[in-house]
Automatic annotation (TrEMBL):
MF-aspect GO terms: G protein-coupled receptor activity
Organism: Danio rerio
Transmembrane segments: 34-57, 69-91, 126-147, 168-189, 221-245, 286-310, 316-337
PANTHER family with a match to the protein in the record: ADENOSINE RECEPTOR A1 (PTHR24246:SF1), OLFACTORY RECEPTOR AND ADENOSINE RECEPTOR (PTHR24246)
Domain G-protein coupled receptors family 1 profile: residue ranges: 49-335
Assigned protein family: Belongs to the G-protein coupled receptor 1 family.
Lineage of the species this protein comes from: Eukaryota, Metazoa, Chordata, Craniata, Vertebrata
GO CC entries: plasma membrane
Signal peptide: none
Name of this protein: Trace amine-associated receptor 13c
PROSITE patterns, per database record: G_PROTEIN_RECEP_F1_1 (PS00237), G_PROTEIN_RECEP_F1_2 (PS50262)
Locations listed in the record: Cell membrane
Length: 362
């Protein structure tokens, strides 16, 4: 493996990608074994958690709300990461441990195989956009969930009129189409990029092709990714602040009313319509989701910025990409802890599963 990696690194002509040496410490047998164990555990947690979310939605009617459809969109995007992206990394790592020759989609090898005509398609051309697209779907869905909760808090009487199932489904389809279109935009807008399995991050990543050991002039196209995510995260943060400000105002008035500090007329006229407790708690849950996604995406945004200016950051790239991947199972954990509707649906689901065997016996 060290010989193969050194051969890959020696590619320095036009159209080659930057491939740092993979030392025995980071790419040794023990390190790869631990990485595979971590990937398998993560994939299992992602798939099981999101399958439970989808099952609760399908089996309980009270979950079929606009917010429920948004949760399903987020669960499908997360599950695609656990079904396609992580297992492919597991397969590649096992392939590297079992074989002395890197696969055709490995860093540096993929570009060389395309240039000499030995390969016409690489699996990373699918896995890479799927991971990027699912990431964009996640942040777009969190933004839509935030807007939906803000309408329920700021305009509770107009919630059912403004937020309908048809509009929600249309926005979900639009978010999926736009997210995956953005995911393949570097390949559509430029010929200076390829997708290959990166030996540092252990994932299929976008890689700028070197021209005489120099980055292409349009390498900053990759900045579209963090720009899009942080723009939506900024909008999500602004809507959350607006919602939480309203919640605080309602809570303060409720406290004053309970203490008798406000008169009856002031209470009736000053706070005629209040958001429900479930709407307030759902807004706080979405705020936690936003914070979790921001924390998981920030390292990879720093890595992309460094990559554009020519830094490799091998060890840091592994943690950055896999922290973002781990966010795919955090959403389910946040739901189970915070969302009472999800807990209620899960309870009803288990009660139904328990009652069915008893009815069959009787």
């Amino acid at each position: 493996m060290e010989t193969a990696n050194q051969t890959v690194t020696e590619f320095s002509g036009a159209g080659q990608t930057l491939a740092p040496l993979c030392t025995s410490r980071c790419c040794g047998l023990l390190n790869r074994t631990l990485a595979v164990m971590f990937m398998v555990s993560l994939a299992f947690a992602i798939v099981v958690g999101n399958v439970v979310t989808l099952t609760v939605f399908m089996q309980t009617r009270h979950s079929r709300t606009p917010q429920g459809y948004l949760k399903v969109s987020l669960a499908i995007a997360d599950m695609m990461v656990g079904v396609l992206v992580v297992p492919f990394s597991v397969y590649t790592e096992i392939f590297l441990m079992a074989s002395s020759t890197p696969p055709l989609w490995y860093q540096g090898i993929s570009t060389a195989s395309l240039e000499d005509g030995s390969g016409s398609w690489q699996p990373c051309m699918l896995i890479g956009p799927v991971f990027a697209g699912c990431t964009f779907v996640s942040i777009t869905t969190i933004f839509l969930m935030t807007v939906e909760r803000s309408v329920a808090i700021l305009r509770p009487l107009h919630k059912d009129t403004l937020v309908t199932r048809h509009r929600t489904l249309f926005l979900i389809l639009l978010s999926w189409a736009g997210s995956f279109l953005l995911a393949i935009s570097p390949l559509m807008l430029s010929n200076s990029f390829t997708l290959e399995y990166n030996e540092c991050s252990r994932m299929c990543n976008y890689a700028p092709l070197l021209v005489r050991n120099q980055l292409p002039p349009d390498a900053n196209i990759l900045l579209l990714f963090p720009a899009f995510d942080f723009s939506l995260l900024g909008g999500t943060l602004a809507v959350n602040i607006l919602s939480f400000t309203s919640i605080r105002r309602y809570s303060r008035k409720r406290k004053l009313l309970s203490e008798g500090s406000l008169g009856i007329d002031a209470g009736a006229g000053g706070c005629p319509i209040r958001p429900s407790f479930s709407d307030i708690k759902a807004a706080k849950t979405i705020g936690i989701l936003t914070f979790a996604f921001t924390a998981s995406f920030s390292p990879i945004a720093v890595f992309v910025l460094g990559n554009v200016v020519g830094y490799t950051w091998c060890n840091f790239s592994f943690f950055a990409f896999w922290i973002l991947t781990g966010n795919s199972c955090c959403n389910v954990i946040i739901y189970s802890v915070r969302d009472h509707r999800f807990r209620k649906g899960l309870t009803l689901l288990f009660q139904r599963n328990r009652s069915q065997p008893h009815s069959e016996k009787s």
